[in-house]
Every structure is written in structure tokens, then in C-alpha cells.
Amino acid sequence: MNQPLMISLDSLAQPIDFAALEAAAKSGGCASSSCGSSAKPDDMDADVWERIKDHPCYSEEAHHYFARMHVAVAPACNIQCHYCNRKYDCANESRPGVVSEKLTPDQARRKVIAVANEVPQLSVLGIAGPGDACYDWNKTRATFDEISKDIPDIKLCISTNGLALPDHVDELAAMNVDHVTITINMVDPEIGAKIYPWIFYQHRRWHGVEAARILHERQMLGLEMLTARGILTKINSVMIPGVNDEHLIEVNRWVKARGAFLHNVMPLISDPAHGTHYGLTGQRGPTAMELKALQDRLEGGAKLMRHCRQCRADAVGLLGEDRGQEFTLDQLPEAVAYDPAKRAAYREVVARERGDHVAAKQSAVAAVKDSAQEGGTLLVAVATKGGGRVNEHFGHAREFQVYEASAKGIVFVGHRKVDNYCMGGFGEDATLDGVIAALEGIAVVLCAKIGDCPQDMLTAAGITATDRYALDYIETAIGALYAATFGRAIEQAVA
Amino acid sequence: MAFKIIASQCTACGACEFECPSAAIRFKGETYIIDPKKCTECEGAFDVQQCANVCPVPNTCVKAA
């Protein structure tokens, strides 16, 4: 069940011998459609699962296997948010302070094809800032029209503040845009007035509570219209301590009632260096544990997304990585032709690997549920480079995926970003202190390899780090760890 | 009688270009520019200048001296 793969997922991301890959992918004797295993969660209908199973942002499970790319083609915006300074870039939908290349629809087409030919995990094309995809609509439409001609199976996705959304819902449906993200930070205009200084609507600027009321009404209308057309929606909310943190419980209720598929509560990113209103006025973002506490309170409402990496507007790759620098404009060829072979081969491999992963995951989760004791909760941070396995060296990790094992099973609850500790073979103590701080609340770190020195320093900080479960599926490893920690003999059950 | 864009502050988002009722704004080099011959300051079209009101950077799209 849990043997190492014949083809590593990792190797697929590198230049490959395609003939060998294809032969290997076909040699397993089990076509994905007939082997009976599916990663579909029990509580989801088959139709919805079919639509999200390759979308890394809409399915936590998919984000181990599939990649997205964003193209910054629609830079104009119709609102001002206190967490955004357009002079730099849009702070919450892109890493702040890093200016992305803006692309014309034709440049975007060349970039997407170049990426599709090189990154077999690519499944989703999104337009997610800087700017608003619905407000800067002509560029959004031109980009999607072009690219869907070349790559008909790529999923199209947009992100919007919602103000101009109701004007374009019918066109979105006609263009087969099946996933729409709306950033909704409030349902009370009094709170909205503390987040949005102004909006531009019907040829003039509106301020304060009046502006927030218009925005709120347009957001709710847009969401209802999308739901009525069966388009899947994700609601992004920026958690701003002291402004809307408690209020997001109310937001969750409103969007759930209007059919939102997912709710993604993200931490405010705030730094004076970004030049945003919040950065300059000292408004802080939440800590990782504050964010988790709010997300835990929201469980049971609209389904939560916990694996968001708040990626750049020109991000390329799996959610935890960014290969955007490999595909900047100056590196793109003038003429590109799409070759579907690599993506097709990757999908075949993933279909099989995924079935295996799901079976392993289910048995590990069941074992933890069966043996869980009162108060027996374990927070585990995992170093992984994809494929759902413990397969990254501690010193190379740029982030850790965080899982909680308890009576509820083994649940992905978030991630912690770190500066990678090991730079060209030299570990730096200063960086390790940062890593330890980022791992607040974590009991155990699982990784493929760790040196004695960082392991000792983590131990001194009260965190166990081990490479004992290297290359195992994440859930299998955590199941075994849970058994070892809480002393019940469930190891056999998950082995 | 015209508006102008302070080039060093322009983010090149282009919102002004498609809000302009007079097609007076175009992209040139690394910034948008307003053709003073075409700019009407939106008189007869809107109550407020569209470019200056949609511009995300304060004091960047302003009345030409």
C-alpha cells in the first residue's frame, strides 16, 4: 500500500525523459477511473468534487499535487483598502513590496503556454490582482478568451472585491469561469468604513459608511448571483485584529447563507515599509495562534480554507513554492506552442498516487479517531515538497504544513512560513531563532532529514524534531507519531 | 484647461484611461499621459473629473497649472 513511488512527483517538475515517464505511468495496470479509489471526501457530492479535485485553492487535498498560476493583466482597481498601497503592490493578494510584472493579454498567453509546457502540475489560471479582475474587465475577458483557445482544459478563476461583480456574472458563466473569489471583510458598513476609505462607483468617489454600504450590497448581490448559476465561490476575509476579527464570525454566517463554497480567513499583512495605511498607523496583523483560534471558532459554518499561502499576483507553481522568477517576460519566447503531453502524463501518475494516498490517509485518520483520548491533541509541523509526503529537509523548508491530530482525526490546520534555515550548507543561528518563533505551539516537527545542531536547539525550545518518518505519507507519519505520543498501540493499524 | 499625471507617481494601472470620456489618456513609455488638447476636465460629461477620482495614488492626477 505504502511503497515508495516508482516515479517521484518531484522528478516530474524537472526536465524529464518523457518517453520513460509515459511508459512508467502506463505500466501500473490500474487506470484511475477503474481502480475504485477516490480522494473524494465523504461529505461532498461527486459533481462538486469533480470540479475542485484539481484546484489547489479549493481543495486542500489537491494542493499537494496541483499548481496554479496568476497573471497580472488587470491592474486597475475601483476601491481603496487600508491594507493596500498601489504604489508598491496589492499587499494581501501578493507578497507586499514586490512589484509584479504587468502583462498584456497576449504576453499572458505566451507566459501561460510556456508554464504549461514546463510545469506539469499546472491546472488553474487565475487573475488575482493587482487591481480588480471585474473592474478591469476587458483585459480579463481578452486574456481568458485567448488562453482557453490554446489550453481548453485549464480552469479559469478570478478574484474580485465584488463591487463590479454583478455586472459580469453572466459573462463569467458563459466563459466557463467556474471559480470566483470575493474578498469580503465585513457585512456591517460601520466596520467597513474602518477598512475602506473610498470606492469609485457610478462615476464618482464615495466615502465612509456610505461607500462601505454600497460595497457590501454589491458583494452580497454578486455572491447570490454566482450561487444561483452554480459557480463555486470562495470568500477571502482579511483578519484585522480589533477591527473585524470578531465580526468575521458574522461574515461567515452571511456568506454561508448565500451559498459560499469556502471561507478563507487570512491574516492581515502589515508593515510600515509597505506604505499601507495600516502599516503606517501601526495596525498589527494576528499571530498564527490567534488566526487558528478564530478559524477553530468558525468550524461548523461555511467550510474553511486553511491552506492559503496569500500568494503573489504573478505566482507560478504549487501553493508553497513560487517559480515565477523562471517565467519573467524577458525569458519568454516570442512564439510558443502548447504541448499537452507533460500535463497529461502527470495527471495519470497523480490519479494513481492519489488513490494510494487516500487509502493510507483514511486508515491513519481512523486509527487516530479510534484511539484518541480526552485532551489528546497534537500539533505537528511537516516539511514537505508536495505529493502529500514527509519529503523535505528541515533546513530547506520555506514553510511547514501544520496538522492537528485529535479525536477529530488528522486535520490540516495551516502553515507556517519561515526563512529557510540552511543556505548553501551553512545554518545560521539567527534564522533558526526565527524558525523556532514561527513554530509557536507546535509539539513535533517531521522532516526528511535534520542535522544534530538544529535538532538540539529545537529540543531546547520544547519542540521535538525527527526524520524518523522520512518519505512516509503525512497522515501515516502523524498516525504513528500520535500512537507513540499517547501510548496506545495503534501503530499496527496505520502501518 | 486640462488635467495631468505626475509620471513619477503613476502606477500605470490604467483605470484613468478607460474612465476618460474624451479618450484623452493613453499609455506612453512607462506611464499614462493626458493629451491637454483632448482633456475637457469632464465638463458636460460628469460632475467630477473621472481620472483624478479613480486614481489610487493621492496627488498624482491633478489640474495642470
UniProtKB/TrEMBL annotation, chain A:
SUPFAM superfamilies: Nitrogenase accessory factor-like, Radical SAM enzymes. One of its GO terms (molecular function) is metal ion binding. Keywords: 4Fe-4S, Iron, Iron-sulfur, Lyase, Metal-binding, Nitrogen fixation, S-adenosyl-L-methionine. PROSITE patterns: MOAA_NIFB_PQQE, RADICAL_SAM. Coiled coil: none annotated. Belongs to the radical SAM superfamily. NifB family. This is FeMo cofactor biosynthesis protein NifB. It comes from Prosthecodimorpha hirschii.
Automatic annotation (TrEMBL), chain B:
Its cofactor is [4Fe-4S] cluster. It comes from the Bacteria. This is Ferredoxin. GO terms for molecular function: 4 iron, 4 sulfur cluster binding; metal ion binding. InterPro entries: 4Fe4S_Fe-S-bd, 4Fe4S_Fe_S_CS. Residues 1-30 form the 4Fe-4S ferredoxin-type domain. It comes from Prosthecodimorpha hirschii. SUPFAM superfamilies: 4Fe-4S ferredoxins (SSF54862). Pfam families: Fer4_7. Keywords: 4Fe-4S, Electron transport, Iron, Iron-sulfur, Metal-binding, Transport.
